[in-house]
Structure of Ribosomal RNA small subunit methyltransferase H:
Amino acid sequence: MSPHAPVLLAEVLEALEPKPGDVVIDATFGAGGYTRAILETGATVIALDRDPTVQPYADAVANDFPGRFRLVRTPFSGLAEAFAGSGAARLDGVVFDIGVSSMQLDQAERGFSFMRDGPLDMRMSGEGESAADIVNTWEHGPLAHIFKLYGDERQSGRVATAILRRRAERPFERTLDLAEVVEKALGGRRGAPIHPATRVFQALRIAVNDELGELRAGLEAAEATLSPGGRLAVVTFHSLEDRIVKAFLTERSGAAPGGSRHAPVAVETRKPSFVLKFKGAREAGEAEREANPRARSAKLRAAVRTDAAPWGRIAA
C-alpha cells in the first residue's frame, strides 16, 4: 500500500491523456501514485523528487516497469535539465502535485508536523537551512514577514516576539517545543478549528524549501520544455500556490496585459503559449473528499502547450 494517496488521480489522467509512446514528467514522484497510473497507460515517465527517502518506491516502480521509468533527484527548477538528460525527443505531459506529502508529515524525524515530536527540520532534500536554523537565527522582521506572507498568520509579530524571547534562553530543537511556544503566544486553542501552530509551520516549510520559488521555476521550465500539444496539469492545496498557477495560465493563455489610461504601457503582443483544458479549477468529488481529507482543499488546473515561443520568467 502506498503511504500517500494521489489526489484527483482520475482528473489528472484525463487532463494528461497519456498513451503508449508518450513521455511524461511526474515532477513530484513521492510514493509513485501518479507515476504508476501513467505507466499503466503505456507511457514513459521521468519522475522528479528532491526527497532522498522516496528511493525505495522508485526502485519498486522501476522493477515493475523496466525500461519506461527513471527517477531524477532534483527540485522543480531542474525539470528542463532532467528532460534534456533523458534523451527523449519530445515531452508530452507534465504533472505537479504541490506541497508536502502525507508520508513526509507522518515521519516525525522529518520535522514537518506540529503533532509529532521530532527534530525541527522540514527540509525536503535534507540539505540547506533547516526550520531550526530559521527560528534560531532570523531577526524579528523577517520571521514576522514569512509568517504573514506564507502562513497568513494575523498575529505574526506576536509569534515572532515569543520566538525571540524563548530562544534567548535556549535554542529551538524540537517540533513540539516550537508548537507549544506558538500556541501560548496565540492564547491557546480555545476551541479553534485548527491548531494554533498550523500557519507558522506551513510558513516555515514553504520558506525552508523555497516552495513558491520552485513552483514558479517549474512552471517556467514546463512551458519551455513541453512540445506543442503537450499537456500540463497542476494540483495545488492552498491559495498561495493556486494563485501562482492561476495567474500563470491566465496570462499565458491569452489574457490582455494590464495598464491604465494614466500610465499606458507598450507591451509586445505575444501569442498564447497555452490553451486552457477547462475554465477554472477542478475539485475532488464528495466521495474522494470523504475518503482522503487531503483532497478537500485540492484544486486542479490544466492546459495544452501551443507552438508559440515560451514567455519566460514569471513575476514574483
Q: What stands out?
A: Strands lie at 23-26, 44-48, 69-72, 93-97, 231-236, 274-276, 282-283, 299-305. Confidence is low (pLDDT under 50) at residues 263-267. The chain has two domains: 9-103+212-305, 107-209. The longest strand covers residues 299-305.
